[in-house]
Amino acid sequence: MDWTAIWLSIRLASATTLVLLALGIPLAYWIVFSPRRWKFLVEAIVALPLVLPPTVLGFYVLVAIGPLSPVGRAYARFVGHGLPFTFEGLLIASVLYSMPFAVQPFAVEFASVDRRLLEASWSLGVSRLATFRRVVIPLSVRGLVTGVVLSFAHTLGEFGVVLMVGGNLPGVTRTVSISIYDAVQSLDYAAASRTSLLLLIVSFLILASTYSLQRSTWLRPRH
Amino acid sequence: MAETASLSAAALQVAVEQRFSAGFAIDARLAVDLRPGSMLVLFGPSGAGKTTILRQIAGLERPDAGVIRFDGSVWCDIAQGVWSPPQARRIGLVFQDPTLFPHLTVRQNIVYGVKTTPGVRSRSDPAPGDRVRPGSDPDQVLAETAKLLGIEDLANRYPRALSGGEGQRVALARALAPDPRLLLLDEPFASLDAPTRVRLRRDVRALLQTTGTPAILVTHDRTEALALGDTVAVVIGGRVRQVGPVSDVFSHPADAAIAASLGIEAVLPARVAGSADGMIDVAVGEVRLHVAEREPIATGAAVYACVRAEDVTLETLSPGHASARNHLPARVVSIASEGPIDRVTLDCGFALDALITRRSREELNLTPGTQVLAAIKATSIHLVPRF
Question: The complex's ipTM?
Fold first, then answer.
């Protein structure tokens, strides 16, 4: 079994999830609570990876972080090497690719918090930000857990984006799904089967534990 | 002398306009002085805009135009671009349902809005009758507020384990704990069962008098307005149509639309003088009325005696009848024609209206100044206890 690829996938999925937690909570907050009329545009952009072929997303990310783009050039100047075919480049692509899987569950849960609870908090002198921290976040634990698990599992299984942005460098960008593809290409069905089974079992366990958590009472304090 | 200022009446001035897409519009003007512990009732039918006005006062709804001032602070002045958010207004807010934070215990709910300043205790030695001024020690605030509302035993429960009445008590405690300048109550008793509602009403009245917090109550319940209100503002169709002391407004509605929403009844401030055999004697000024009332009321209690004009009959004055029960010698003040019915306004020590047919008016030969006997059946008078 390709343990290097498995370990890389786990690192990538964890890093992606952490970044999405940090970016997704404020973004979901803004989508739910902003009075701006054009926020539907942001919602559409966040949801794009759900319908876009991964190769299309990967292609644009590759161009955007490549040596011809200002972002890519600036990064290369500061760090000393370019973003494509590196772990960091892969991370950027994964974050964009899994964005809807984090932001949408967050936003749904934030929006389902009774608005009068927020009004009660404001009337008690508590600022909007502190109200979000003290009321909205604790009541949204289910949505946060769902978003985290889905983005982790989704990143674990991504293929097209990785291929476009990361290529196939062992230990750097060669993730589990690429490793399976390689094994099949070289007709090593035994290796492909072992890794596939592992991925299947892990994904199932993650999802099963999420659904069971959602049923348990400590995650749903509302009635 | 901040203490003196807080014990005198706080002026509330509201003059707001707000349009809604459905064509409904608020155009409310109101200026009242709220004494410490007193209650202003926003009374009117459902959909009249009472709650919207309350939300504008709370800072949760922004009017299109107008001003809201309270006790020297400008909360809203759209023309000047002044707007203070709810956080800056120091108000307490209680909704129709408890709306407690479900992930916090009762104790955590109550102290939620209390700012903690370690080591500061503003009320170490309260004098009797002193205004409760919870300090910034959450434990102390919790103890004081919970005691006032009789919810000390609930401190460690979660909101889902509370009954409706208990939940509303906790919501009140939470609103009062940070010592608000003004308490806003949006139909807080409407979803409670009758006995719980009556108990909580009485306790709220006592509570506000202890803390000295002025309050605004939104309700469409007439009994509630009478039982709790000091001043009433009648809201119909987004406008404040009449403002005044409760008994004045209920007894003398300014026009027919207001009368229709209030119910046409004389509301007489009275005191229970005694009771026997299921009958209650009340004193309205110098006059005694005999009332058949199912619920016993303690002697000495303040009540409103409510009498509908159609339940008042008129008889010619004869010496024998004047001593009979609920037969009041009266003088006709004025007569107004309402179709086939005449409304006769009487002075029998207090103002009272009688509705009679034109024929009986002619038989009794009534003109302003005529002396008559006004008779009211004991079962036609109903009493609303004042809390």
Answer: 0.82
